[in-house]
Amino acid sequence: MDASPFLERLRDHAASVGTPPGGPPGPGDPDRQGAQSERAAGVQPAQRGPAQPAGDRQVGFWQSPVVRAAINRRITGDPELGPETYFARRHGPSIIAPHVLSLRASDAKLEVAIVEAGSCERVTGLDDEQGRVDFAAGRVPEPLRARIGFQLGTLERWQPAEPLGAVLSRSFLHRRADLEAVLDRLEAMLAPGGLLFVEDFVGPSQFQWTGAQLDAINRLLARLPPELLTDLSSEDGRVKRTVEGPDLGRRIAASSQEAVRSGEILAALDARFERVEVRPYGGAIFHQLFSRIMGNFAERPDLVGVLMEVDALLTDAGVVGSDYVWGVWRRR
Length: 332
Hints:
Helices cover 35% and strands 20% of the residues. The protein is an alpha/beta fold and 332 residues long. It has a single domain (3-331), classed as Vaccinia Virus protein VP39 (Rossmann fold, 3-Layer(aba) Sandwich). Helix 6 (130-138) links the parallel strand 3 and strand 4 (148-152).
């Protein structure tokens, strides 16, 4: 690739992304693992630097408005158009039955968007952790609480009274070892023509990162100034120098459910459902590159935009796969 157009595209993208308003997503969004499991996924601190003050630290990519804007652009084509609104506008009219199931409670944005758009009559949200149920329920506007309800429960024990118009599945499938059984159950619950929405981690199972992505991440880390590499999850100011492939045994011990069969999700979906719209939005680079150091880039939105574009270019060129997907499938 010629260097001049490449650099021009990087600069144009960084300038266009900007820093739109918006806060971090709620619990249940991709990659909300915490520092302990991120270390198990292979991030290696190598030396110590000045300690950082305690407080509200951005430790993951999901907390950066610049990253969120870049992801919006990859999914919706517009850095200021959120995926929830896009889904409601583009796919809401195709929801053919009044009842929708939502799996793994988050910030309720998508549930609110489809009800406000008139896409369905009611949404039932299921989650097996009370904290996420309470969080999501608290984000539903008072006038919609009779139509959007979150409850403690599991997919195995819940049964709809009628076929569903859609299922919303976010950060759910990558935690399921029984992937085929889960998708078979969802297929049975949906009305013919019903939609299955998925946003999830679909990168290497058990976070067994590929050589290509580790090489790209570590070459970028080696070129970043030390002040951007302070590990914000630590109290001693250690510096993140490299990302390594995690030891499989320690990875499973740290969290046996995380990414248990993530690399198989897309094939399993395509075997059972018809693709409607699928948007891989990258992450093979930015996921681990920004892990535990995101807040250091708060004053460098231009650099964040460039690094997000590097991720996009390498993903689009097939050098690395996409670790995350946003997509809509239909029951045949």
